[in-house]
Amino acid sequence: MSSAEGTTAPAVLSANRISKSFGEIPVLFSIDFDIKPGEVHAIIGENGAGKSTLIKILSGIEQPTSGSITYDGETVTLPPDGKAEAMGIVLIHQELNLAEHLTASESIFLGRELKRFGFLDLGAMRSKAAELMDTLHVRVDPDDRIGTLSVADKQMVEIAKAISRDARVLIMDEPTAVLSVSETQTLFEQIRRLTARGVAVIFISHKLDEIMELADRVTVLRDGQLIATVGTESLTPDSIAQMMVGRELSNLYPPKHEPDVDAPVVLGVRNLTAKGVKDISFDLKRGEILGFAGLIGSGRTAVAEAIVGLSHRTGGDITLDGKPVNFTQVAQSVDAGLAYMTKDRKGKGLLLNMGLRPNLTLLTLNKHIKAGFLDSSSEERALERAVRRFDIRARDASVAVGRLSGGNQQKLMLGKTMESEPDIIIMDEPTRGIDVGTKQQIYHIIAALAAEGKSIILISSEMQEVIGLSHRVVVMREGRLTGVLEGAEITEAEIMRYAAGIKSGNDERISA
Amino acid sequence: MSVSAPDIPAKPKRGFRLDLKTVGPLLALALLVLLGISLNENFLSYNNLTNVLARSSFIGIIAIGATFVITAGGLDLSVGSMAAVIAGVMIMVMNWLIPTMGIGWGVVIAGMATGILLGGVAGVFNGTMITRGRIEAFIVTLGTMGIFRSLVTFLADGGTLSLNFQVADVYRPVYYAGLLGVPWPIIVFALVAIGGEVVMRYTAFGRYCAAIGSNEQVARYSSINVDNVRLMTYILQGVLVGVAVLLYVPRLGSASSTTGVLWELEAIAGVIIGGTTLKGGYGRIWGTVVGVVILGLIGNILNLQSLISPYLNGAFQGVIIILAVLLQRGRKNA
Ligand SMILES: Nc1ncnc2c1ncn2[C@@H]1O[C@H](COP(=O)(O)OP(=O)(O)OP(=O)(O)O)[C@@H](O)[C@H]1O
Ligand SMILES: [Mg+2]
Predict the structure, then answer these.
(1) How far is the CA of A94 from the centre of ligand 1 (A)?
(2) Which of A153, A189, A466, B282 is deepest in the core (most CB within 10 A)?
């Protein structure tokens, strides 16, 4: 999709034999990387491979331990603290970086406020922001506070902010991890518009189909080593995956074992009404994986939070093993064997300033108390188990969780949830930011849990994941349940029909 | 990878700086001791040291409570006024009990119990307003700071409340005597500090405090009863103010509207110098102990020398606080 001159022109930004260590720990080994004007260059690799670290070096936020950076043909030392933005290198972080209390328009113009006669020109900033949002097809008002936006909208504000900065090199760390399919398409449109203007785009994603669609070249990292840089046309998703994990990846999804027809209903929800959701009814059977599909913002998370007592239920009934329950505190639902894993790992899932151990055991600290005191060796054992089971890769267990790679944070959160040994697990976007190899592991873990007789509600915006794992799929739209699909009906087209509101209503199917 | 990454450029020296942050307070303390020794040979004398430590123990005990409050992301500005009103009421209760109970330990013990109970009640009040009333801790405790201060002024009718001389005589040893030559206030301070360190590090409560201060949402999603834990920190703070006061009352045997003025600031300063982060999420009790002792030593050293006016005490303390926070800055999110 790049113009011809894109491939022949000299590189605008390149890294030459870059190595990086944090303290004693080497993270990148002699990496060569370059990006040409008008090109989309994707970086892929397993969790913790060093992708985020590489682009932090390319944008000056981290300094390489050795090696050099060339920008516009000159060897440069990029200024830290994002000041490289002024030079035209803009980075959008993996974890969003917006100040929660600012409005969207303040956030977009932060540090480069428009002024008139020395005073802030609020009107002009607001209308320019609105214009930007319009071109991005985002429904965000310039006056909305960032804190009130959904993760996807926050991401769009970040992108609007980057676009408004006239970037020459735009670097995006997993921008689509939090976006729905249509939002991703909008983003890609913008990226194509930018590359047509000669902007160079570096892009990290774990979604291989996206990479095939968007990228001109792909660089594969594994354990801090450069494996290859190749043109996209010579690749298939399978060959990329193989390069990434260093082994063949077959059977991404484990075979489905349908739960017994007469398996008892473990969780019954009737006419649930709460903030953001209305009149939701469904049943979850023992050993079942019940997918929840729908567009982002369709109320799936709100259903989960109302069930476990994180938000107030205004109507309806919930039964657990046939007995009515009313959870008002998360602790109650955890005690009853029902655990919810949030999708917002940074804001609600993990304590970023603390180590792996306290994070893992926070939900289940009572299990690690002996005679009133914390038993740190028991905690340590739990951590060892979780590290093994979920393949959590931290080069140093005492490191603050905020310094783990995104995928490893996700795996730690999964470990934390599973520590409570729940019978029913509600997983909200469990594979967000996770590499394909690990995804496969997690899918097998989920299937194994179901085979053991645990029941799982799988909320996911990755359609393939819902289709590949679920026994039945609940589709939601604008806070309401629009359909329950079974067996052969579970197809992308059918789910989209219900999610988009083209089809709805089959209430007789609610209970299995 | 984390929001903090951009503002912490990874310098090769990072590991070293981190260490400095841990040993920083200890280093400062050692420097102060060396300075003290070089200025006055009496500095290391038994009398001087027990004197400094005994005086520091009131603030110290309060500051240990404050460490929990601050670690859990809260703040209690009312502790100084709370101390004054508790001292006032304790004295009134003891005086009032003399006709029925006579002079003796009975009255003193009743007074002590009153003090602790009152502290707990004040903590319940602060904590309930903050957690159930959903009002900022700063606002609530600023309010109660004013309320308590004016209550003690009212109770003392603008003057001084004095403990009955004979009861004061019975009570005196609690401040002036001790065990094996160590005054009681120092012993109690040490016990509270050890207990605090154990609770902070080795109990679920301590872990929960840090979790809540670090990210309240994460704590809530991790099934922690955030409101109850917060409430507990304020009650603990109140009870510890009560403990500090029952050691303080025998020292002067009186309370007035100027009792405990600025104690809240000294306590908070001690906590911060000790390395606890003001915005919560990380607290260390031993650091607080060191911080409080540092503040005490500054005053003491200024008194032991003649070059610099002791009236500059506050200025030196201020400089130390600012330095401590400067040193901490790198740890903000790490
Ligand atoms: N500031 C830091 N201090 C110490 N270690 C770090 C730091 N930043 C990153 N690391 C380590 O470097 C390695 C590479 O991390 P990086 O974030 O670059 O991975 P990634 O490829 O982006 O992974 P993911 O796909 O999970 O986002 C990880 O092991 C991580 O723990
Ligand atoms: Mg990353």
Answers:
(1) 11
(2) A466
